[in-house]
Amino acid sequence: MSAPEEFYVGYRPAPTGLGRFLKWITAGLWLTGMTVAAIVVLGQQPFAAAVFEFGTVRTFEGTLVTTPQPMLLVERPGAGAQAATVSTYMLVHPGKLGATGIDDLNGRRVRVEGTLIYRDDQTMIEIVPDSLSAVGDGRMPGGAGVDLGEHRFVGEIVDSKCFLGVMNPGHLKPHRACATRCISGGVPPILLVRRPDGTVRHLLLVGPKGEAINRQVLEYVAEPVEISGRLERHWDKLVLKIDPRRIRRL
């Protein structure tokens, strides 16, 4: 005669056989959950070494230029004849705003307080409001507008402020809405180009005459694109002059 089938009643202890079965099921589900969690964690890409020195204010002094983008040129002590004589710091205002209202200081030597933002070899200063002032005549070093010829690049358009360190990661589709607002506010757009050897190029995007084209590139932000244009070197920055109508989605 076969043993009676175990039956669970909610207000009584579980039968021995059923309790043992539930323990194995619970342990299996727990182990499966932990395994899936470990796979997800290990599969995540590490955050890039991008830094926003939030809360740390420094003082900078150098020559201010407003083209091809607002930048501060700071002399490099002891730079040799073959090295760039200045470091370039892109300038932005707090929030999602580029550095505007500073055209009258173009070419002047200025002093400014701000917070550093940097990634790879790219640097930026978020200006403390009302801290920018002229302290003399600027010295415009050589190295601006060196023509490197026509080129075609495949990459992603990002907003420079978030990508360099304010947000991490500051690119791809999840960041599109934020990048669109930043570029709309005047933050310089950058074409992020990943090369076959794993290195990255950051190309400042401007129009054919060096003019700002922020609004013209908004529909292409955070998407893979192909862009042709004239490449120039401005001190230690690469600048790509493009016709926005020739941007091609991939």
Descriptive report:
The protein has 250 residues and is α+β, with helices and mostly antiparallel strands. The protein folds into 2 domains: 50-137, OB fold (Dihydrolipoamide Acetyltransferase, E2P), CATH 2.40.50; 146-249, Beta Barrel (OB fold (Dihydrolipoamide Acetyltransferase, E2P)). The protein has 3 helices and 14 strands. The strands form 2 sheets. A 5-stranded mixed barrel has the order 2-3-4-7-6. The termini are far apart.
Q: Can you describe this structure in just a few lines?
A:
With 250 residues, the chain is of the alpha+beta class.
Architecture blueprint of SSEs:
Elements: H1 16-43, E1 50-52, E2 58-65, E3 71-75, E4 86-93, E5 97-98, E6 108-119, E7 122-127, E8 133-137, E9 146-159, H2 160-166, H3 176-184, E10 189-194, E11 200-206, E12 224-234, E13 237-242, E14 248-249
Parallel strand pairs: 4-7, 11-13
Antiparallel strand pairs: 1-6, 2-3, 2-6, 3-4, 4-5, 6-7, 6-8, 9-10, 9-12, 10-11, 12-13, 12-14
Q: Cα-atom Rg, whole angstroms?
A: 27 Å
The rounded distance between the terminal residues' Cα atoms is 73 Å
- Globally, the shape reads elongated
Total DSSP helices: 3
* Biggest sheet overview: 5 strands, mixed, barrel
Average residue pLDDT: 87
Let me know the number of strands.
Answer: 14
How many domains make up the 3D coordinates?
A: 2
Structural class: alpha+beta
The CATH class name of the largest domain reads: Mainly Beta
Give unreliable regions as ranges: none
The ordered H/E elements are HEEEEEEEEEHHEEEEE
CATH architecture descriptor text of the largest domain: Beta Barrel
The portion of residues assigned to helices is 10-25%
CATH fold type of the largest domain: OB fold (Dihydrolipoamide Acetyltransferase, E2P)
Order of strands, main sheet, comes to 2-3-4-7-6
